[in-house]
Amino acid sequence: MVVFCSPTSLSWTHFISSSLHIPQSFSVGETNRFRVFCGAAPSQRDNHMAVSVTGATGFIGKRLVQRLHADNHNVCVLTRSKSKAELIFPVKNFPGIIIAEEAGWKDCIEGSNAVVNLAGMPISTRWSPEIKKEIKQSRIRVTSKVVDLINNSPQGVQPTVLVSATAVGYYGTSETRVFDESSPSGNDYLAEVCREWEATALKVNKDVRLALIRIGVVLGKDGGALAKMIPLFMMFAGGPLGSGQQWFSWIHLEDIVNLIYEALSNPSYRGVINGTAPNPVRLSEMCDQLGNVMGRPSWLPVPDFALKAVLGEGASVVLEGQKVLPAKAKELGFPFKYPYVKDALKSILS
């Protein structure tokens, strides 16, 4: 049985058709007797989307799900921990959102117009050989699973769009070079991770529109790089991290969510798109602006050894950088709400 449900009324506890009631205890993937298409009927799909999201409980994923839900799109959260996802997306605040552990991913993906793949272990941690392996494998494992499920979806129910995250680490690091989407990959560990991550996503069927978003350092409230920088900043009187000459290719959380959202619905968004603001800064300028916004001085640098003591090899994420420009997004006319870091920080910290 195939059931189309409206984007505003989907709930496991509602009657979806006169002949079908799905009980409250039902969880996705428990039965193959019917399939629920979590989107509008075909004639309505121009206006409404059904989107499955991996990494939905992460920093970017949470905001994306909130945005999709607020705009009355159907959302399926693809997770490894249903209990964690239910705490982040409680049913009283997010009625109609479906939360599926891995056994239910297949039905969700086959009921979606689009898939957003944001899953991956955070990189801003102390790197051991085991952690480095998991940083890479967590990205490749989930991306491979998502791609396989899309590719094996029956004709007629296959998602038409995959928006898959990658990172500006693809380009390697440099204090002098400028990178855009046409630039070659670097030769360090994070560049290797990004190459394999992207290569896995590129195995999706050619009739599925693929947008690969190379995401920079995301700035936002209550998470991401800023939450880790501020305590160090306070401890060391607000100075730059390391030399301060490294480039900091950043983007406001609201802009990266809007860019992903646009990539879901705009057919011009395909291939590699840098998810960075149009005005990257050196880290010394970033820290000066942060000091100004916080009303603190910015004079005593955070020494390399302090970061390495905390992050080990992972300190390279902030001690080295790259100047990345969003050439494709600008060409597509994407409207950045926060093109300058000063305005981004003011909006976050005010």
TrEMBL record:
NAD-dependent epimerase/dehydratase domain location: 52-268
Pfam families found in the cross-reference section: DUF1731, Epimerase
InterPro entries: DUF1731, Epimerase_deHydtase, NAD(P)-bd_dom_sf, SDR39U1
Domain DUF1731: 302-348
CDD domains attached to this UniProt entry: SDR_a8
Residue stretches spanning the membrane: none
Listed PANTHER family: EPIMERASE FAMILY PROTEIN SDR39U1, SUGAR NUCLEOTIDE EPIMERASE RELATED
Protein name: Epimerase family protein SDR39U1 homolog, chloroplastic isoform X2
The species this protein was found in: Durio zibethinus
